[in-house]
Structures are given as C-alpha cells and as structure tokens.
Amino acid sequence: MTDDQPPARPQSLMFSFLGIYVLGRDTAVYSGSVIDVFARLGLSEEAVRSTLTRMVKRGLLVRRRQGRKMYFGLTEHAAEVLEDGRRRVWETGAVNHDWDGTWTLVGFSLPDSRRSTRHDLRSQLLWAGFGLLQSGLWVAPGTKDVTAMLAQLDLGDHVTVLSARALSPTESADLVRKAFDTEQIAERYQVFLDRWDTPRPLPAAADDLARQLLLHHDWLQLVRQDPHLPAEHLPADWPAIRAEHVFRTLAKKYEDGAAQLADTVLDELPLSP
Q: Where is the Transcriptional repressor PaaX-like central Cas2-like domain (predicted)?
C-alpha cells in the first residue's frame, strides 16, 4: 500500500484495532489472527509480535494461552485508555460548540531538582488540552478535572488550579491566540482532509478493514492533539468541521464490510467464566 502520509506506528494502529474489536467485548484475540489483520496494513509478523510483547510489558495487554495458541486481552488500564479515546472520537468530537465561557488555569513552579516531574506535567497538560499562556501558566477551555493527573505527580504546594473567566481588557479570543497554535492545528486537519476527503480514499489499501483501521487511527491522533477550542473563536471555515463530517461518513461506510471481514479473520477467546 502506497501513500504520501508517513507510516503509522504499529502501537498506534494496535490501539485503534483494540478500540474497535476488543474494547467492551470481554474477549481476547489470537495473536495469529491479529497478524493476519495487520498484514492488510503492510505490517510484518515480527512487527506485530514485537508490539504485542511491548504492550504486555507496559501493562496494557495480558496473555491467555489455550492449547498451542496465545491470546491477548485488555488490562483494566488499557480499557481506560481506549475508553478515553472512544469518548474523544464519538462524544467530545472535534468542534466545541458548547463552551460555557470558563477557563481552567494551572500554574506551577518546580525547582530544577524536579525537572523530570516538570517535563511530565507539561506532557500531561498538553494531552489534556492545555496551552501555555505564559511562563508557568497553562490554560484550557471549559472545566478540566486535573485531580488524578496531579495526584500521580505528587506536586503538593507547587501547583495552583483555578477556574476563571476572561475580564476586560483580556478577551477569550486573545487567550486562544496566545496559548494555542491554531495554524498548526488547522494544518493537521487539512492533512487529514487531503488523505480522506476524496472520491476513493486510499485506493491501494487491501480492503475496507484496512481503511477502517487507518481512518480511525488518523482521526484519533487528531482529536487527541486537539485542545477542543471554542468554535466561536475560530474561523468559520475551521477545517475540523469538514474533517469530522468526512470521518463520520467514512466510518459508517466502512463499518459493515470491515466487521464482516474481521469476523472471518479474528479468532477470539471469551474471558468470562
């Protein structure tokens, strides 16, 4: 399969596969059948086995042996990660039409001795949709519950969390402009549209199962990087609007055919007694 887009990382594709075909089904899948699915994406058996092994070591997958076959199921942590992705794709979406005018602010000051923690906190804030407003002060639209994130990092008195509204002379549009690179966000959506908003997306792909996995992978990467900015402070032609329509249309188009193919390929092991 040829495509101008850089190849997706096997683990990212694996998350998309697990989110569609394992999450919520209380089942494990045979490694050989996973290899067959990923062969449609041009991934080698070695790459798939290596990915599965790494995900076991990271506490994302568990092994279940039956006879000579090895099956892989989700850990609780993996299910939580995948459920978060499902919500972002199907519930949160790419366009924030419901913003209530509030902002969540996180301010922190950490000594150099905790440089690693500072890096981890910044990464977590970016993941949660925050943008850097000014040194040590991060902002995100809406009310964000950062309790669990901060508890993991043991920040104590080094961090302050507030909910606020912009007051004159500050405008919410200014906060969007200062804290977020909207041009870069728009460019990512445009790349998605260039790939998928065509009469026949990915004609070289093996089948609709391959297209479904690539589509979901590309979209999940987009919405996970999107801070979900208020639509009222974005251009009327914001490309996420068109991109979300394209994603939902194609997801529905591929769903039945991909599911039928998956049923013929996947060997599943029920995990319930």
A: 97-176
